Amino acid sequence: MPFDIKTLMAENLSRDNAMYGEHVNSKFAKALKIIGFDKTYVRGKGSYLFDSNGDKYLDMLAGYGMFNIGRNHPVVQKALTDFIEADYSSLVQMETPVLCGVLARELKQRIGYGLNKVYFCSTGAEANETAIKFARRATGRNTVLYASCAFHGLTTGALAMNGSEVFKENFGDLAASRKIPLGDIAALERELSKGDVAAFFIEPVQGKGVNMPPAGFLAEASKLCHEHGSLFIADEVQSGIGRTGKFIALHHEKDVKPDVVIVSKSLSGGYVPIAAVVMTEKVFGKTFSSLDRAVVHSSTFGKSNFAMTAGLATLSVLDDENLIENAARMGDLLGQRLLALKDKYEFIADVRWRGLMLAIEFGKPKSLKLKTAWATVNKINEDLFCQAITIPLLQDHKILTQVAGNKMTTIKLIPPLTFNESDIDWFMDGFEKVMQDLHRFPGPAWESLTRIAKNALAGSPKGSKS
Question: I want to staple 40 with a disulfide (CB 3.0 to 4.6 A). Which of 52, 171, 370, 378 is the partner?
Fold first, then answer.
């Protein structure tokens, strides 16, 4: 019987959550079910998802920022189909693939800063691991610095630079690392002056919480790193490839001189795992220092012509459809409309954005009734409040969003860069209705939260933190 993926999917579609729970991750499957996120999505196009019932959803999550050019873009589809049909060789390993050189040239031109070598691998976490390794070799030092609330991946080296302790619990000793408060230049200088720092890793716009350092910090940080013999490494895994209205978020800042810039996630249009570590000749040359060290570091899938094809097609779409400019324009429009609600709704504490990377932060209200509601919910679970927003947005308004991070009262919005004014209207209409319901206490929104909390607690063993 010939293999038929469409038939296989159709036969198992109605059991997706149960099968995932049984064979992959039961905790994740159960968590989605408790909060009503166990939808079965069967199609994606542009900024939209479609479920098995035929309902259309506005995707404000974009696969954690993977689909900058929108889902299933026809240009990338055709490029990959053409590549497959050509029966072209790929991953011979003992070769110098032409498309690697072409994509590397494109990235160097777009990123700039005199960075002239590119190392390709598969994921953002792997790219950060590579950067740690290269920084240690380049400087002869072991320690890396990172900022509070940072997220650079969950492999052990990248995990050592995670700003949230919950991710690090019970995973043993990690790489030598130290944390500084985001934007604290004095703290950075103190740590660099100890003389053991290989590199300072920084997200110009943080994925967890959409936090940004104050103006001038990145320039001063890069200067201090160089004065103390350390590398300045910009992690643009989520903030890059046009997300913030520039090709990389670092381009918003003046006088920054990075040694390494990391891009990944949306570089392939969401089709193929790909990441690029773009660096100076000096950093690159320290690792690949001689002929016998030409393969001292490598990645099995890093030179895939299939991935390079997707990357080149994605860059073409960004240019042809002016998606970077659209990200800047739509981000400002959505950000300003959200900011205008701050005085109207007590729970909204802050709105911040750069391009189409936005955060809505919620905080303790002023009125007595709402203070009581806020205190009650946060006493049950610090992660619970934002579910009162994300759940009705999905269930009642068909809008997919996410909480910005563990123990955060912040919603993050990272829609595809194809996002338009109609999408903004769709989101704003749903969000304001959710806000109206949330500002009525007691009311259905708070009853739903209490029910979710009870279900979650009932499903957890005594003393469990899961």
Answer: 52
Tokens of 236: 């643009």
| pLDDT single digits (tens) 414-454 | 999 999 999 999 999 999 999 999 998 888 778 777 777 76
Domain shared by 344 and 222, yes or no? no
Per-residue pLDDT reduced to its tens digit, 285-343:
999 999 999 999 999 999 999 999 999 999 999 999 999 999 999 999 999 999 999 99
Residue 370 shares a structural domain with residue 438: yes
Mean per-residue pLDDT of the chain: 94
In sequence order, which residues have a C-beta less than 8 Å from that of residue 361 and are 6 or more positions away?
209, 348, 349, 350, 351, 352, 409, 410
If asked whether residues 338 and 418 sit together in one domain, one would say yes
Asked whether residue 316 falls in the same domain as residue 328, the answer is no
3-state secondary structure the chain: CCCCHHHHHHHHHHHHHHHHHHHCCHHHHHHHHHHCCCCCEEEEEECEEEECCCCEEEECCHHHHCCCCCECCHHHHHHHHHHHHCCCCCCCCCCCCHHHHHHHHHHHHHHCCCCCEEEEECCHHHHHHHHHHHHHHHHCCCEEEEECCCCCCCCHHHHCCCCCHHHHCCCCCCCCEEEECCCCHHHHHHHHCCCCEEEEEECCCCCCCCCCCCCCHHHHHHHHHHHCCCEEEEECCCCCCCCCCCCCHHHHCCCCCCCEEEECHHHHCCCCCCEEEEECHHHHHHHCCCHHHCCCCCCCCCCCHHHHHHHHHHHHHHHHCCHHHHHHHHHHHHHHHHHCCCCCCCCEEEEEECCCCEEEEECCCCCHHHHHHHHHHHHHCCCCCCHHHHHHHHHHHCEECEECCCCCCEEEECCCCCCCHHHHHHHHHHHHHHHHHHCCCCCHHHHHHHHHHHHHHHCCCCCCCC
pLDDT at site 455: 67
Neighbours of 154 (CB within 10 A): 12
CATH number of the domain to which 342 belongs: 3.90.1150.10
Model-level pTM? 0.94
Q: At what angle do helices 421-438 and 444-458 cross, to 10 degrees?
A: 80
Residue 198's domain comprises 75-320
Residue 457 has pLDDT above 70, yes or no: no
